[in-house]
Design goal:
3 helices; 65 residues; Nuclear Transport Factor 2, Chain: A; globular; 55% helix; mainly alpha
Length: 65
């Protein structure tokens, strides 16, 4: 894995640990396809395409349920 990718992953984990959701979303590719595990409740809308879908559905549900 390239150092650039390692740095991206570190930034994402650091932002997540701080609760900085905008910074987490910032490192994601605009065309990301996020999938929850098939047995998980949030898999009902797989795949989630793009950061807005991840924020509006996955993270929003995690924050309210």
């Amino acid at each position: 894995m390239s150092q650039k990718n390692v740095d991206i992953i570190r930034r994402m984990y650091d932002a997540s640990a701080r609760g900085d959701i905008p910074a987490v979303l910032e490192v994601l590719d605009p065309d990301i396809e996020w999938r929850e595990a098939e047995s998980f409740l949030y898999a009902d809308r797989n795949p989630y395409i793009g950061p807005p879908a991840i924020l509006g559905v996955v993270f929003a549900r995690l924050g309210t349920e």
